[in-house]
Amino acid sequence: MSSTILVVEDEPAIQELIAVNLSFAGHKVLRAFDVSQADTLIRAELPDLIILDWMLPGVSGLALAKKLRSDERTRTVPVIMLTAKGAEQDKIDGLEAGADDYITKPFSPKELMARIKAVLRRRAPQLTDDMIAVDGLTLDPVAHRLTGRGQALPIGPTEFRLLHFFMTHPERVFSRGQLLDQVWGDHVFVEERTVDVHIRRLRKALEPSGHDAHVETVRGSGYRFTGSLPSK
Ligand code: CA
Fold it and tell me: Which end of the chain is more exposed for a tag (fewer CB within 10 A), N or C?
């Protein structure tokens, strides 16, 4: 499945190598040579994953990783750090700063792609192609098909992405802004009311099998997908 991946790397040859491999794998690639360019890109569109070089001119990759983790909006974006150093302390510093994984240079593109896949599966299951089932509701990302108790449920593309995100993050409350970032990739140019419109459509799509009750409104906070309904 296609993800938006930001590559922050100041060495043009390495940046190019990574970008080409990601594009070839079907991902959308954003590129930055330093932290300030990365900041600008992240403000415009929240990436699904960030590949971050440790040694950058000016502000270090480590400092950016720490900043991403302390910011509510970017806290959950997976980060893979690139480091030329193999020292144990650097790996520990990177992981403590909130990186999900690190790769030591030089690395093979094949290894990088495998690490990306593993991190996405762990941190952003809505971006993988794994089939997911909750209480008789089954979502198949490959076939783009939804069934409720064996019955095919017609659903629009945005509602499908929204439901995929919900089903892979059950029981957690998400604000409209968070849903815009996670599902639309954009909290700046899309109005929050848009979320309400698509929640309504999603519930409508889930009605035939009675799964609409799983999509809960949490007053004053946002929305939640619950896997277990209170028995009536
Ligand atoms: Ca570098």
Answer: C
